[in-house]
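User: Predict the complex.
Assistant: Input components as received:
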Amino acid sequence: MDFGYKKKRVRIDLNNNKVKIEEISDDFLLDYIGGRGFNMRVLYDEVGPEVDPLSPENKLIVGVGPLNGTLFPGSARVNFSAKSPQTGILGDSNTGGFFGPELKFAGFDQVIIEGKSTRPVYILINDGNVELRPADHLIGRDIFETNRLLLKELKDPRIQIAAIGPAAENGVRFSGIFCNLVRAAARTGMGTVLASKNVKAIVVRGSLDLGARNPKKFLNLIDKVNEQIYAHEEYIPRKRMGTTRLVTLLNELGCLATKHYQTGRFEFADMVSGEYLEKNYKKKSKACFSCIIPCSRFFEINSAKYRFKSEGPEFEGLAGFSSNLGISNIEDSLKCVDMCNRFGLDVITTSECIAFSMELYERGIINRKEVDNLELTWGNVEAIQNLIRKIAYREGFGDVLADGTLMAARKIGRGSEKYVMHVKGLEIFKADPRGIKGYALGNAVATRGGDHLRSEPSFEFTENSEEAIRRFGVPEAAFRLEYKGKGKVVKFYEERCVLADSLNACKNTITNMEILSYSEAAELLNHLTGLQFTESSIQKACERVYNIERSYIVREGIRRKDDTLPQRFLKEPLPEDSGPSAGSVVELDPMLDEYYRERNWDPKTGIPFEEKLAELGLHDIIDDLKKRGIEIKKSEEVVK
Amino acid sequence: MTKNSLKIVIDSNICTGCRVCELICAFVHTGSFSVENSRIHVEKDEFNGKDIPFLCLQCNEKYCISSCPTNALTVSDETGAVLVDENLCIGCGVCMKVCPYNGIKIHKRNKKALICDLCDGEPECVKRCPVGALSIQRI
């Protein structure tokens, strides 16, 4: 019986059709915990700055963690990582569903896909066996059709499928990998990387045993965690609406991204809210594998305009295709999300591409002729849905947008770059950073570019000054419109996110609800695996992973100057109609100074100090960076 | 408790498809989380949002017992559950085929019949279902 880990990774070399199974050492497990940690280490070691993201030399790495496949609530996640074809830096995307645990039951903690197949294939991993199968018949098929065909072909309803859609095949740089139909590992173009390797899908099926070293004690700890979840104030709202409840919450706070972040309040928010969706379309709650918070929803629409059913959406897709584009009919929004899901597109970047185009159109920077004669005015659903399709197939103006907004702006020119709402080439989420300063900092420094899921510093909503002083030294840390203390807050939550992504459990519990302290995590993992984790070894592992990620992007050329936000958030106050957030801008520099201090990184360059990397045991990374001429300083040389 | 004293009742309309029932079933019976070992299995149709748990319903007919060629199946006097003698079970799958309720599975690897034994009267799946889709009916 294996305990928690399978201690195996499989390397699939598509150039030579070779499969190699490698043992994973206990030291590696202890140092990197799982999923994201495993992937980041391999990415650093094997995919350097010389690698073109769309070349066979890039690697698509799939990682799961020790809790996958166990009764730990929400331990359903999986990480897909590679160098990103959208940003050129670190690519990593995480999703739930049922794929991650099935991969574990199929015998592996990690899969590394390298090279390029000469013909379209799908990868079948079944109880330790790996097979490459022809996928010519799947080419051009959308995510749903691909799932249907594979289920029919393999005649086993229990297979789990991670697939790409036509957008990835057409080289759209923000195409995702979709598990369970709509569970999207959508960000940073991981689907595009899989397509570049001629792989249409990864199918897993597993029945191998997986136990706990101390079953009773492990189960007792699970019971404790479950009790905390059931008693948590967020349990009921999350169960009812999942993340879609944020439409109302953020709109009330005046920082719901509206008409491309031109204001923070959407007048039709209550018609596109999580509450509205729940009341009018939700058929039932849906959960990921092993999760007791069924935060996902199955819905059905039967109206004059639409007849379809699906699962989801999350806040990002809903707000991206409502407030941020001026769409006031939720059925239209849901249809847009459904289209992205079938084409295999990232809803954040896709909706942002369209919002960006609409702002340029409104300002007269682009004209109707340039955009295939589409009337790109706010809320024009026909034009929006047309453009989604054009992006997926790289047709006309869709081809301009299919590389993401930053590259689109570079093609368009005419000063359009200042309207790109990105960090490091990745479009940001659908909350306005000006109304949540910790999240603003989190986005500015996130290692995969514009991203809230690398930190989720939700503490800034608590307004609990005492707790803020106790935990982060200053009362301001508990208030979303204040900037003081946010460096500390963001560092703390970044490491909680690493913990969640490396255990491959859900951030809803580990990060937002802050369930499972580092010492509880150590106890849990020790009872599960029989290894000797400690509170400090786990905390340090999380910090180590984050520093590897930073070192990775430093090696790619990222410096402090890149840890920034679009000018709109730094210079233009949120307008009057943004309620309690009106007048706010992001005070980024003082937050960055505090953040680098907390991280012990060079505040001038954003490069980690040598002491920090040494303290984390990353001597080989110090040597690597130095060898490449990157100046790693000691803190005493810089900080007086 | 007397024979046929309890039954697990399924409400698939509220089942979220999380498979916690499968996990705990597998774990308490085999010490392994591998859901392949579970006596309850959730059939999922993600296209239509359907999640339907299946398990032995202790029906009156018990075709499984009458058709078992090796007499590997018996009824528990205490709970009324159908018990599998793994030494006798040859994994022929006849019980699975004749079950009108899709309540029996054959293990993918060890080829033994998997039938709900009601956890000796205290079904763990019922205790752990996060939404109450499984409940106990005492007869």
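Residues 6-138 of chain B form a domain with the Alpha-Beta Plaits fold (CATH 3.30.70.20).
Let me know if you want any component modeled separately.
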